[in-house]
Amino acid sequence: MRRGPLLTILALLLLTATARASAPAPVEAVRVLAERPHDPAAFTEGLLLRGRALYESTGLYGHSDVRRVDPVSGRVLARIALPARLFGEGLDLCRDKSGRERLLQLTWREGRILAYAPATLRPLGGTRFAGEGWGLACRGREAWISDGTSRLRAFDAATLAETRRGIVVRDGGVPVARLNELEWVNGWIVANVWQEDRVAVIRPDTGAVVLWLDLSALRKRLGPGAEVANGVAFDPDHAPDGAGGTLLLTGKRWDKLFVVALPDVLRRPPLPPARRPGHAAGRQ
Description:
By secondary structure, this protein is mainly beta. It has a single domain (23-264), classed as Neuraminidase (6 Propeller), CATH 2.120.10. It is 7% helix and 45% strand. The longest helix is centred in the first third of the chain and has 19 residues, at 3-21.
């Protein structure tokens, strides 16, 4: 039997499978459901919604703060300014050792994580942090932090000790750098990419980007001072089309907050990865 043709066929099959595995994620335009006011002076770094309260972190030295905002009117209800030496970054609600929620705010290059009481924004101290802080997202006992690279670092949400877990985010096998604001949505990680009008939908187990949300059309609705897109929050309770929630999107110095429909992939948790033949059930 001649091996040449068989080896050629096998090589072609392997190349085809590799190409499929490394194909870039599809792109989908967001569908806007509503527009709401947003402070055009806010240099948005972190955004999250809990109940009827929208929390926002803003950046720039001498202008950084953490604020509680009315999500419909955009009116700032409470605000705490950061010292001028600190540059505010990602923000999320995380549970401490006793199970109580606290607001955690990253700083950019200053090695500090600041804590606040959610109801009053009363400062609760802080802790040291190694490396740059960009985006923050907590779920259960785990906190994920972006640092401007393609890697998402994992921390214990209560102790803020870094764990060995972590992922490199890739699109079609290519690392995605400049990951910024983060949000958990139905078991997926959603991330802004600095200086790009798109949002990545990421599998937290593998780091693979499965979908890009294209925000470029939103720019036509913004005022002239709008800078880069940054700020994504999940609203699980607002589902006008029965789709299990909506996303809130904004950016640095944007004068609008957009309510957009969830894409199909975000309406349900990611399926577990397929097991390789020979692996016992329940073992990774």
